[in-house]
Amino acid sequence: MPVCQHCNTEWTWQQTFKKIFTFKRSLTCPECGATQYLSRRSRNHMSILAMIPLVIGLPLVGLSLPASIIISIQLVTFAAVLTWMPRFYTLTNEEEAMW
Question: Which stretches are transmembrane (predicted)?
Answer without folding.
Answer: 46-63, 69-89
